[in-house]
Amino acid sequence: MIITEDRTVLLVEDDDHIRLIVKISLSKLTKWKIIEARDGFQCLEVAAKIVPDLILMDVMMPGMDGVTTFSSLKKNENLKNIPVIFMTAKVQQEEIDDYIKLGACGVITKPIDPMTLPQSIAAIFAAKTVVDG
Amino acid sequence: MDKAQELSGRLKALTARAPQFAARSVVVALSFMLLIFVSFSLFTFNQQSTMISYRTALLQSYHRVGHLESVISLLREAEAGQRGYLLSHEERYLDNFEKATRELPAVFEKLLSSPQLKQLDRSALQKVQKLCVDKVEELRQTVELERSGNQPSAHQVFKSGVGRATMQQISSSIGALTAQETAKRATLEKYLHDFTERSTTATVVVLIVAALALFGFAGIVVRLFVANLENTKRSLAFALEIRDARDRLDTVLKSMDEGLLLFDTSSSVTFANQSAEELFGRKNEELIGKTFHQLFAGTTSRELIEYLSLASVFEKQNSLRHLELQLVRDDQKPLSVSATASPLLHNNIITGAVLTFFDTTAKVESEKRLHAQFEITKILAKQIPIENAARKIIELICEQFDWSAGAAFVLEDQKTFLRPFAFAGSAGTEEFGKAISGLQVELGQCLAGKVWEAEQPIWEVDLCATENFTLKEEGLRAGIHAAIGVPFFSRQEFYGVLLFYSQEVRERDQSRLLMLSAICSQLGQYLEVNDARQMLIANERKFRAIFDKQFELIGLLSVEGKILDANSAALRMAGTTRDQVEGQDFWLGPWWAHSEAVQQRVKESIAKAAQGEFDRFETEHLHDDQVVYIDFSMQPLLDDDGKVVMLIPEGRDITSLKQAQEKLAESEAMFRRLTENVKAIFWIANLDGKILYLSPAYESITAGSIADVLANADLFFQTVQDADRAIVRGLLKDQSGDEVQFRLARPEQDEAWISARSFPIYDTGGQFIQMCGVAEDISERKRAEKRVSEFYSTVSHELRSPLTSIRGSLGLIEGGLVGEVSEEASTFITIARVESDRLIRMINSILDLDKIEAGKLELKMQEIVPEELVGTALDNLQGMAIEANVTLKKGINCDDPIRLDRDRITQVLTNLISNSIKFSPKSSVITANSERTGEHVRFSIQDQGAGISAKDLPKLFGKFKQLDSSDSRSQGGTGLGLAISKALVEQHGGTIGVQSEPGKGSTFWFELPLKDAPENVN
Predict the structure, then answer these.
(1) Chain B residues inside the 8 Å CB shell of A92
(2) What local confidence, expressed as pLDDT, does residue B16 receive?
(3) Is residue B833 a contact partner of residue B807, using CB atoms and an 8 Å limit?
(4) Which of B15, B253, B513, B839 could disulfide-pair with B273, CB 3.0 to 4.6 Å?
(5) Does any CB of chain A come closer than 8 Å to the CB of residue B832?
C-alpha cells in the first residue's frame, strides 16, 4: 500500500483527539481516503458498506473492543480479507505477537508520530508482502 | 624269666605237696580217732571189770549166805525128822532126815569151794561143818538107838540136850558168818555204788573230751581241706600268671624297641627278638647260632668283645651298661646303638648272657635337634630384628645339619607373592644368594611357591634337575642339588617358607623333614608370640591412650572402692595427680569434696557395684566455682566366674550437653513458635519422598491434613492443580533453592498460589540425606501483583492516550501539517515533543522493568556472534555519537557464538553505549569490546568521561538513579536504563558491573555465560 495511491482506510478509534490527529496525518501525508468510526459496531457497519482497503483499529474501545471487532470481521466473508492494523497503547511484545497470531496485518504502538505514521503503515505492508510472498 | 621260673617252681612244689598232705592229714585223723577209741575202750573195760568183780563178790556173798541158811534149814529138817521119828517111829520122817544129811556135805562143798573165800572164813566154815557133822552124828545115833529099840538110851540122849547145845552153837556160828557176809556185802555195795558213780562221771567226762577232740579234729581236717583248696586256687592263679607272664614276655620281646639277643655259654646267639632282627637287618635264622664276632666283624668296642667272650661274665657276673657302639650292618648302613649286657643266671650259675641294643640314631639326631632348637630359642630370645634372627637360624641349621645354604621367604602383605627375607650360605653360594634376594615368588612357582601352595614340606632330590627352577644357572654354578622347603605358620596361617640347599644329591629323609618342620613350627610359634607381644604392647598403648586421652572421666577401683587408677581427664578435673589419689577411698576423692550428699551417693554406688549391679546417676562437681554436671556410672568388672573383681567409675561432663539440651529445648520452642506462627509451610522429607515434618500452616493453607500427608505424601500432590504437579514433584528433588510457584486445586475458592523453595540437607559428613523447604501462600501477593500489573497496564494506557494526543498534536505542528508557526514557537513545540517522547520512553521502561521483575519477560535465545551484536549497537548509535561529537570504535572482538536474546542484549548494549555517549566529553572515544573469559563472554564499554566516585557506584544500577538530577535532565535519560540492563543481564544468568575512577572514565561491563542456563529459557 503506497501512500501515493488512492486507497480507502477505515480508522476506528474511540478517542476523538487521536482520531483527529491520525486522520490529519494520513490525509495530509497520503492520498488515502480516511473514513472514521468511533467503535467496533460503527466499524463493522461502515466496513460492510464501503469495504475499505485497510482498517486501522484501536484495541481498547468501549462497546466492542478491537479484538472482538476483528473476529467479527474475519467471520464476514466480504470483510475477512481486509487487512487490519491494530493501534495499541500497550507495548508488550506478547500482545503484539498475539495480534499477529490472530491474523492482524501489523501493530502500531501509541503514541504515534504523525509525521512518520504513513511510512510505518507502508513499511508494515511492505514487510507483509515480503512475508506473504 | 626269673619271675617265670620262680612261679613255675612254686607251682610245682605246690602241686607235689597236695596229695602227700592229704594222706598225712587222713592218717593223723585216723590215728587220733583210734587212740581215742582205744583209750575209751580200755577205760570202759577197766571200769566194767572192776564193777564185775565187785558184783561177783557180792553175788558170792549172797550165795554163801544162802548156803549158810540152807545148812541151818537142812539141820533143822534133819532134826525135825529125827524128832518125828523118835516120837512117832514112823519111817517117813526119816526120809527128810536122810535127805538133809545127804545134802549137807554138798552145801558145805559149795561153801568151801566159793572163790574169794578168805582163809579166816574158811576155817570158821570148817568149824561149823564139823559141828554140823557132829550134830548129824548125834541125831543119827539117836535114830539108830531108837530103831534098835533102845529107846531109853535114845531118849536119854535126846533128853540130855547135847543136841540142842550143838544146834545153838551151829546157829550162832552160822549167824556170825551170815553177819560177816552181810557186813562184807554192805562194804561191797558201797564200793560198787561209789565206783559206779565215779565210773559214770568219768565216762561222761571221757565222752565230752572225746567229743571235743573229735570236733577239734574235724576242725583241723576242715582247715586242712580249706588250706588245700586255697593252695589249689593259688596254684591255678600261679598257672595263669605264669601264662600271662609268658605272653607278656613274648609281647614285650616282640614289641620292645630294643633289640635283644640271648647268648649261651659258648657265646652263640640262642634267641633274637623282632627288633634285633630289624635292627641288624637279618632274619632270625641268620642270627641264631652265630657269635657276635660273626655278626659284626666291624664292631669296635673292645669291652663288648671281651664281654661277649663271656670271660668277663663268668668272672665278674656283673652287667655292662650304656655301651655306645658304632656298628656296621650287612647292608653297610652305619648303626648307632646303645647296648646293655647282663649275665643270665640260673640258681646262681651262669647259663649265658643277655644283650639289649637300643637304636640311638634317632636319639643322636634328636639331641642335635634339641641343641639346634635351644640355640634357636636363644637367638629368638635376643629380640633382634626378625630378618637377622632368621639369618642366624639359617646359619645354625646349615652348620648343624650339613646344609650348604638356606633362605627364608615370607608372604608379602597383599599375599600375592613371597619375598625373600633372609639368606645364609657357605662359600660359593653368594651369587646364588644374591639371585634369591631379587626374587618375587608366586604361588606354585619354584620350590618356595610349591611349598606355599601345598603348605607342606617338600623335598627335592635334585633341585637343579627340576623343570621350573628359576635360578637354575646360579644354582648349578653354586653346585646346588638337594633342597628342602618347609612352610611355617603364624596363627594357623601360612607365613613363609624356610629353604635349605645341599651341594649333593640327597634322597628324601623323613627325619630331617620332621626335624625342620619342628624348627619351623618353633619359628611360627615365635612369630605368633612376637605378634601377640607386639599386639599386647600396642593394645596396652592403645588402652592407655584411650584411657588417658578420652574426654570422659574414667577410673579403676578395687571392690572396696579404693582408687587404683584414674585417667588424665579425671585427674585434670580435680586438679590432682595419680599419686595423690591412688589408694584413696573413691567417695572421699577430690571430685566429691564439695558435697557430703554426693559422697554418700557415690559410696552407695560403690556398694551396689560391688554386688554386681550397674549404677548410673547424674551428679554435680564444683570446678573453679562452676557447676559441672556429670553423668556418672559405676560398673562392676566381672571375672570369668562372674565375681566382681574391679569397679569402673565413669563420668561424662554433660554440662555442655545440658546447656545444649536447654538450648535445644529453647530452640525447639522457638522453632515451634516460628513454625506455628509463621504462615508458611515448613517441611522436611526423605530422599524417597516420604514427608517427615510439616508445619501447622499446611492445614490452614491447603485445607489438607498433616497426619494424612505424613502417612502418604501423595495426598499432598492431590491438592495441587494437575498442570502444576510435575513442578511440585520436581521441588522434592530440586536442590537449587529457586522459587517455584504452583496452584492448589481449591475448586470452591479462589485460585491459591503457593511459592515454594526447597533445599538439600547434608549430614555432618557432607552426605545428602534429606530435603527441606518452605512454602507460602502467595495468592494475595499474586493478586496484588496482578492488580499492580493491571495498574501499570491501565496507567500506561491511560497515560498513553493523552500522550498520544499531545505527541501527535506536537508532531503535526512541528511537521507543519497544520499551518505555519513562528520560529520561536516552533522551538518550544520541539521541546514539548522531545519531552513527551522522553515521557513515553520512561513509561515504556517502567513497564519493561515491571515485566522483567515479574518474570514475565521471555527470552528468545539464539546463537549470536558477540562481535556482530556489538557492531549492530554501535551502528544504531552512530548518529547520536556524531551528534555528541564522540567517536565509537570496536576494541577486542569475540567470534565464539553465544546463546542469548538478540533484542534484549542489543537493548543492554545500546543502553550502556548511549549512556557513555551522554556522559562523554566532546572528541572523546568510546570503545566497545567483547571477549571470551573462560566460560563467559565479557562485553565492556569503555569511555573517557568524568568517571564515577566509589560511593556512588552501588547506587548506579538502582531504579531512577541518575546520579545527578540536573545531569539527568540535561541528558534526557529515564533513570531506568541501567536497572533494566541489570535485570536483563541477570535474566541471562550473567552479571553486570562498572569500574570507574573519577577523572579517568568508566568501563561498564557485563558477562554472559557461553551456554545458557536452562532455568533462563522459559
Answers:
(1) 847, 851
(2) 64
(3) yes
(4) B253
(5) no
**Which residues share a beta bridge with B498?**
B408, B486
The Cα–Cα gap between B592 and B573 comes to 11
Helix/strand/coil percentages in chain A, nearest 5: 45, 20, 35
The contacts of residue B386 (CB under 8 Å, 6+ apart) are B421, B527, B530
Mean per-residue pLDDT over chain A, rounded: 88
Rounded distance between C-alpha atoms, residue B209 and residue B204, angstroms: 8
Sequence letter at residue B515: M
At B427, list the grid cell: 662359600
> End-to-end CA distance of chain A, in Å?
15
Q: What does the alpha-carbon distance between residue B446 and residue B452 come to, in Å, rounded to a whole number?
A: 10
* A25: nearest Cα among B811, B819, B821: B811
For testing contact with chain A, the best of B790, B792, B805 (most A CBs within 10 A): B805
Give residue-wise pLDDT tens across range B327-370. 767 665 667 777 777 777 777 777 777 878 777 777 777 777 78
Query: Among B324-338, B555-569, B890-904, which stretch is predicted with the lowest mean pLDDT?
Result: B324-338
A79 pLDDT above the threshold of 70: yes
Q: Is residue B847 within 8 Å of B796, Cβ to Cβ?
A: yes
pLDDT above 70: residue B4: no
DSSP B945: S
DSSP run (H or E) holding B507: none
Task: Work out the average pLDDT over B468-482.
Answer: 83
Nine-digit cell string for B791: 495498574
Interface contact A114, partner B, CB < 8 A = yes
Under a CB-based contact definition with an 8 Å cutoff, are residues B693 and B716 in contact?
Answer: no
B797 in contact with A, Cβ within 8 Å = yes
Q: How far apart are the first and last CA of chain B?
A: 120
pLDDT of B183 reads 87
pLDDT band for position B19 (cuts 50, 70, 90): low
Instruction: Give which of A25, A4, A52, A43 is closest to A113, Cα–Cα.
Output: A25
Facing residue for B797 by CB, picked from A90, A94, A113: A90
Please tell me which residue of chain A has the smallest CA distance to B903.
Answer: A93
Check A25 against B811: CB less than 8 A apart: yes
Question: Is there a contact between B812 and A94 if contact means CB atoms under 8 Å apart?
Answer: no
Amino acid making up residue B951: K
- Mean pLDDT, all residues of chain B: 81
pLDDT band, very low/low/confident/very high, at B1016 (cuts 50, 70, 90): very low
The answer for A 33-92 residues in CB contact with B (under 8 A) is: 60, 89-92
Residue B811 at interface with chain A, using a CB cutoff of 8 Å: yes
List the beta bridge partners of residue B553: B651
Planar angle of CA B826, B815, B973, nearest 5 degrees: 70
Can you tell me the distance from the alpha carbon of B817 to that of A114, in angstroms, rounded to the nearest whole number? 9
Amino acid, single-letter form, for residue B39: S
Per residue in B952-1011, pLDDT tens? 777 788 766 554 444 444 455 667 788 888 888 988 889 999 988 888 888 999 999 887
Residue B995, beta-bridge partner list: B1003
Q: For residue B916, give the nearest of B978, B964, B969 by alpha carbon.
A: B978
Prediction pTM value: 0.37
| Spatial distance between the Cα atoms of B890 and B229, rounded to a whole number of angstroms | 148
Q: How many CA atoms lie within 13 A of B277 on its CB side?
A: 12
From B759's Cα to the closest Cα of chain A, the distance in A is 34
Q: How many angstroms separate the CA of residue A113 from the nearest CA in chain B?
A: 6
- Within 8 A of B805 by CB-CB distance, chain A residues are 15, 17-18, 21, 111
Q: Measured between CB atoms, does B975 come within 8 Å of chain A?
A: no
Give which of B911, B912, B899 is closest to B859, Cα–Cα. Answer: B899
Nearest CB partner across the interface for A25, out of B812, B836, B840: B812
Q: Give the nearest partner residue to B817 out of A15, A91, A114, using CB atoms.
A: A114
